[in-house]
Amino acid sequence: MQDKKKKQSYLKYLYLNIGFILAAALLIYFVASVSIKLFQAGESERKQQQIMANIQARVENFDESIKNGNYQKAYDLLNSVIKDNTDGKYDRYISDMTRKVADEYNLLCQSLYGETVNDSIAKRVKGITVFEEQIKKLLEESIENHYKSFIGLQSDYQPTINFLRNAQLFELFQDKLASYINTVEDLNRTRSDYQKGVNSMARGEYAEAISYFQNVPESDIQFYTDAQKRIEECHAAILKDSLEKAQLLIDGKRYQDALTILNNAKTHYPDNAELLQKINYCRDRLAEMNLYQGPIYHVFFHSLIVYPELAFDGDYKTQGYNDYMVTVDEFVKILNQLYERNYILVDINDLFETYRDNDHTLVKKKDLYLPKGKKPLVLSIDDVSYYEYMKGDGFASRLVVDDQGKIATAVTTPDGSEIITYDGDVMPIVDAFVEKHPDFSYLGAKGIIALTGYEGVLGYRTNLTDAANYASVHEEAKRVADALKSSGWRFANHSYSHNDDFSDGEFELVILEHDTERWKREVEPITGPTNIYITPFGYQVKPGSDKYEYLTSQGYEAICGVGGYPYHVITEKALIMDRQNIDGVRMFNNPEMLADLFDVGSVIDRSRPFFD
To answer: For residue 444, which phi and psi values (nearest 5 degrees)?
Structure first.
């Protein structure tokens, strides 16, 4: 019994120990298992941390490569991250890297608005195309936006065309870029023409405006409709303007000039009743006149001798006055004989007309219609300055304007007093003669006053630019010049200096250039611009010579020398015309040269010295 109890106690103890052993074994297994799992988890986390560190290093390297323009390396780094992004864990890195490519693209685009792109930028533009997949859509949108913005008038031409041209560096969408560039350039030209048309229209140059508006194509929807509307407005303005200008010319009996304007307008408005009526009227008036085809005399005088007893007083100047001057009595007789022989004063500018050929103004013959039986005469007067050497020798001292705006002469009498007369020189005498005989002047023409400048003009010492009273002297001279122009007189450049260098026509061009520049600087502000040049000493200007080319380049369309008989020729750039001197030399030595104009023997002043 006792042994049985011991055995049972032993077995109980044995089982208990075995349980403890099993429990310990299980505990050890559990602890070991947990430890192994914890170790494995740690290893995995360390590995992930290493991978993330590697990804971040690639991202940083990518950023640096983009910054340095090493796009190929950046491209490879981006692709390596994309390749490792099997479970989407690196999406945010890829997104950020892609955004930086877009930022770099946009930054490069800012450099494409200049006319040129430097080599460094060009290299980067070409290099970034390695990211074609990332930038292709961006580039296409940029191209479209710039093109449409210009088409829609939201952007200017220059930045637009610069961007499109420079965008070709990407070497993508080349066909589209070429097409857009051509369209933008075409539209810019037509829009430029449109604006030129608007400007011309504002200046009243309607024909020119039409030529510009017609360049706007129908494809330019922004401007075409308005251009067509403006063309209609220009045509209406041209017609109105043509009719008004023609009527003014008709009122002034300038029927040929009026007909030229009307016929030009007729090409655009062939059925306009008012236009046709005026054309017929002008033709009827011209039918009452003759188209003149004969020789055209151009005669010239110097200032007239008012008191022969003072001019021909036997001093050293007497011979010069006898050779080159005419007395008032002689001039009045000549004037009457010219009128009796049916001569009529004409404006030299009625002998030719100008026209535009590209950028050049050229001249051509103009038909000259005169009242039947009339013969044209161009009149000019040289050296109307009343030089110092003429004082006390019986000439006028200056031209003045009276209270009625008429030209008169200030004359010093033999007793030394000054009087104002209307017969002291050619200009007031002709004015009075035409007033009495209006048929002696064609369309109000008088003559040409050829001025030097070295002792001023018209009796005013405007050459003394430093004088204290210069402003008032200049103003009075201009007042006289304006009165002369308003009454039908024209001015000509007769050289500033009348220097002896010009006497034989053989001189360096630089002399003519300096002289002309001074005339324009000192005399032209008084007379206004002129297209007439009368050579000093009457030297001939040959077409094609350097002097001819220079004078025509300065706007002189009529160039006159001195010759013995009527002569003129119209070249491409100017009327070249000879003038006949009427003076003592001509009347004494060659009276036959003047026989068609007047009878020398009946006009010669018997007070001239050595008259035989």
So the answer is: 80, 10
Residue 457 makes CB contacts below 8 A (sequence gap 6+) with: 384, 385, 451, 477, 481, 523, 526, 527
Helix (H) or strand (E) holding 18: helix 2-68
516 shares its domain with 377:
yes
Cα–Cα distances in angstroms (integers) from residue 528 to residues 447, 448, 450, 478, 525, in the given order: 16, 14, 13, 9, 5
Q: How far apart are CA 383 and CA 494, in angstroms?
A: 8
What is the pLDDT averaged over residues 27-56? 70
SS3 content of the chain, % helix, strand, coil (to 5): 55, 15, 30
Residue 493 — φ and ψ, nearest 5°? -80, 120
Q: Which residue has the tokens 């050890």?
A: 28
Rounded CA-CA distance 370/317 in Å is 42
Average pLDDT value for the chain: 91
CA 112/CA 163 separation, integer angstroms: 5
The C-alpha atoms of residue 429 and residue 233 are separated, in whole angstroms, by: 49
- Residue 461 CB contacts under 8 Å (≥ 6 apart), including other chains: 455, 467, 473
Q: Where are the alpha helices (DSSP H) in 446-533?
A: 470-486, 509-522, 524-527
**Whether pLDDT at 24 is above 70:** no
CA 404 to CA 402: how far, in whole Å?
5
| 283 in the same domain as 149 | no
**Residue 124 in this model has a pLDDT that exceeds 70:** yes
Q: What is the pTM of this model?
A: 0.65
Instruction: Name the pLDDT band for 544 (thresholds 50, 70, 90).
Output: very high
**Residue 47 pLDDT grade (very low, low, confident, very high; cuts 50, 70, 90):** confident
In a domain, 261, yes or no: yes
Is 296 found in the same domain as 268?
no
Distance CA 118, CA 102 (A): 21
| Consecutive H or E run containing 493 | strand 490-493
Closest CA to 139 of 97, 169, 161: 169
Q: Which of 245, 262, 267, 447 is nearest to 344 (CA)?
A: 447
Q: List the one residue out of 499, 495, 550, 560 whose CA is nearest residue 523.
A: 495
- Interatomic CA distance for residues 342 and 366, integer angstroms: 21
* CATH code of the domain containing 250: 1.25.40
Element (H, E) at 283: helix 273-287
Residue 178 lies in a domain: no
> Domain check: are 411 and 549 in the same one?
yes
Distances (CA, A) of 105 to 74, 77, 254: 14, 18, 71
Residue pair 336/325 in contact by the 8 Å Cβ criterion: no
**Six-digit token string for 307:** 């008191």
Note whether 598 and 336 are within 8 A (CB): no
Any idea what DSSP says for residue 304? P
Closest CA to 327 of 315, 343, 314, 311: 311
Phi, psi of 576 (to 5 degrees): -105, 120
Give the end-to-end CA distance of the chain in Å, rounded to a whole number. 205
- Are 471 and 509 spatial neighbours (Cβ–Cβ below 8 Å)? no
Whole-angstrom distance, CA of residue 556 vs CA of residue 19: 137
426 vs 411: CA distance, rounded Å: 13
Contact, 71 vs 131, CB < 8 A?
yes
**Residue 6 to residue 11: CA distance in whole angstroms:** 8
